[in-house]
């Protein structure tokens, strides 16, 4: 995974610089998300990696699958990635791009996994508390995982706050073993 990030970072930085220069951050987000979704498709990925296809044919196939939704710069990115045999990196490029965009816009995506669905009031309070702690705008999505028994796990980038009953029981078991 670290190797993929290392390989994808220069492409993501170049795309991000281009997007900033042209004022097209959201358009590039959409293009990269579409491309990442396409190369994530197993059948298309297998077809694109077929040894009989040239880099130009790989790039054209991917562009054709995306239809008219890609701008010319995105088509050029596909051509460069295909030429360098880096099309499988598109998902990682998209992820790195989104991280750079969020940092520029001072936002963070937070995923809250709870044992039960959060009420609107709980969601609002949690967003406000996270805004104060992280000092940035918070975009929160929530998931339900009943195996947590109670409480929640909050993931914001590298930060993970485990307030679940399952997590506390695991810590207690670890403490008892030592």
From TrEMBL:
InterPro entries linked: ATP_synth_OSCP/delta_N_sf (IPR026015), ATPase_OSCP/d_CS (IPR020781), ATPase_OSCP/dsu (IPR000711)
Key word Transport present: yes
MF GO annotations: proton-transporting ATP synthase activity, rotational mechanism
Membrane topology qualifier: Peripheral membrane protein
The entry's keywords: ATP synthesis, Cell membrane, CF(1), Hydrogen ion transport, Ion transport, Membrane, Transport
Gene3D superfamilies, A to Z: N-terminal domain of the delta subunit of the F1F0-ATP synthase (1.10.520.20)
Signal peptide limits: none
Localization per record: Cell membrane; Membrane
Domain of life: Bacteria
One GO cellular component term noted in the UniProt record for this chain: plasma membrane
Family membership: Belongs to the ATPase delta chain family.
Task of the protein: This protein is part of the stalk that links CF(0) to CF(1). It either transmits conformational changes from CF(0) to CF(1) or is implicated in proton conduction. F(1)F(0) ATP synthase produces ATP from ADP in the presence of a proton or sodium gradient. F-type ATPases consist of two structural domains, F(1) containing the extramembraneous catalytic core and F(0) containing the membrane proton channel, linked together by a central stalk and a peripheral stalk. During catalysis, ATP synthesis in the catalytic domain of F(1) is coupled via a rotary mechanism of the central stalk subunits to proton translocation.
Protein name according to UniProt: ATP synthase subunit delta
Organism: Venatoribacter cucullus
Species classification: Bacteria, Pseudomonadati, Pseudomonadota, Gammaproteobacteria, Oceanospirillales
């Amino acid at each position: 995974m670290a190797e993929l990030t290392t390989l994808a970072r220069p492409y993501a930085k170049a795309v991000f610089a281009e997007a900033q220069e042209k004022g097209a951050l959201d358009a590039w987000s959409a293009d990269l998300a579409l491309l990442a979704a396409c190369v994530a498709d197993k059948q298309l990925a297998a077809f694109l990696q077929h040894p009989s296809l040239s880099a130009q044919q790989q790039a054209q196939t991917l562009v054709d699958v995306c239809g008219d939704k890609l701008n010319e710069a995105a088509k050029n990115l596909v051509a460069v990635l295909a030429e360098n045999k880096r099309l499988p990196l598109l998902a990682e490029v998209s992820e790195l791009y989104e991280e750079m965009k969020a940092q520029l816009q001072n936002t963070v995506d937070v995923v809250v996994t709870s044992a039960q669905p959060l009420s609107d009031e709980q969601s609002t309070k949690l967003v406000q508390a996270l805004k104060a702690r992280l000092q940035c705008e918070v975009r929160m999505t929530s998931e339900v995982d009943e195996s947590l028994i109670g409480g929640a796990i909050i993931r914001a980038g590298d930060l993970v706050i485990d307030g679940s009953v399952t997590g506390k029981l695991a810590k207690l078991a670890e403490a008892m073993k030592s």
